[in-house]
Structure formats: C-alpha cells, structure tokens
From TrEMBL:
Record-stated family: Belongs to the F420H(2)-dependent quinone reductase family.
Molecular function GO labels: coenzyme F420 binding; oxidoreductase activity
Domain of life: Bacteria
InterPro entries: F420H2_quin_Rdtase, Split_barrel_FMN-bd
Catalytic activity: oxidized coenzyme F420-(gamma-L-Glu)(n) + a quinol + H(+) = reduced coenzyme F420-(gamma-L-Glu)(n) + a quinone
Name of the molecule in the record: Nitroreductase family deazaflavin-dependent oxidoreductase
GO CC, any one term: plasma membrane
Gene3D superfamilies the record matches: Electron Transport, Fmn-binding Protein, Chain A
Pfam families: F420H2_quin_red
Species the sequence originates in: Nocardia terrae
Length: 166
C-alpha cells in the first residue's frame, strides 16, 4: 500500500491544502475543483504535483451513490493507521456531511487509489475510543480538521478504509 512521506510536507503546504475558503463553494465549483484534483492525481502517478494541493497525501475514493447507484470519485486527504487509510468527512466544516460519506454508509464496499496502487476496501465509521484515538492522530497531522469541527455543529466522522485481501 502507499507509503506517503507525511514528514516531508511543510506546514505551508498543509495550511494551503486546508484553507477553509472552500466552504462557500457552489456545487459546480466543488465539482470543478474535485475534477481538477482527480486529473492531477492520475496524470502524475498518484500524486498531486502542482497547484495548492501539491505534495499532500491524497487518495481517490470511489463510491456508489446511496440513492442513484452512480459511481462517484472523491479526492481526500488521508493519514494511515497500520494498513488502514483514515479520512475525515469534514467537507471543510460545512453544515452537512459530504456526499461520499452518505454513499459509504449505504455501500461500504469502495475502491481506493493511493499512490500508484488501486485496491478494493471496506469503509467503516470509527466509533468510541477508536474514533477518539484516530481523531487525535488525524488532526495532529491535519490541524485544519479540528478547526472545521469548531465551525460546525455536526460531529465530523472519521472513516476507516480497510484494504480487502485479494
């Protein structure tokens, strides 16, 4: 699985990646931003190599729409917990959960692209003490997530992506 060098990121890169300005984006603007990040990720072998997200640990999460059955791809920042990938359903502190979160609740079997690897995974929402532990480690790396939590009344879910054995 992808071994991103989290230590190599500068605080400036993390702050640029985590700008809260995105909360005010329209649905069309979100979609355009996501499509650009997906394009950059795939064009550069699983790494975003230019723009404000340059060098950040990013994965592409493919989900099946909870209502539509349509396939959706979402670029997400991540950390690791052993072999599992950890993502936060922050939507930059917006009042509602991101669409991908509703999709994994309905259809937890997902596909993940991390670095140059592609694999199937099972998504699960972390609960209780495990969620607390993962929240601490995730927000230590991505402090913006804790800031997003302060700006919303919803609890930002932590989602684990566990690779399935082949």
């Amino acid at each position: 699985m992808s071994d991103f060098d989290f230590e190599a990121l500068s605080q400036t890169q993390i702050e640029q990646f985590s700008s809260a300005a995105g909360v005010a984006l329209s649905r069309a603007e979100w979609e355009a931003l996501n499509q650009e990040q997906i394009r950059l990720f795939r064009a550069n072998g699983g790494m975003i190599a230019e723009g404000q997200f340059q060098g950040t640990p990013t994965l592409l999460l493919t989900t099946i729409g909870a209502r539509s059955g349509t396939t959706y791809v979402s670029p997400l920042g991540y950390t690791r917990d052993g072999n599992r990938y950890v993502v936060a359903a922050s939507k930059l502190g917006a009042p509602k959960h991101p669409g991908w979160f509703h999709n994994v609740l309905a259809n937890p079997h997902v596909s993940v692209e991390a670095g140059s690897e592609r694999f199937e995974a099972e998504a699960a929402v972390a609960q209780g003490p495990e969620r607390d532990r993962l929240w601490e480690s995730h927000t230590a790396f991505w402090p913006n997530i804790a800031e997003y939590q302060r700006h919303t009344t919803r609890v930002i879910p932590i989602v684990l992506l566990e690779p399935l054995l082949k």
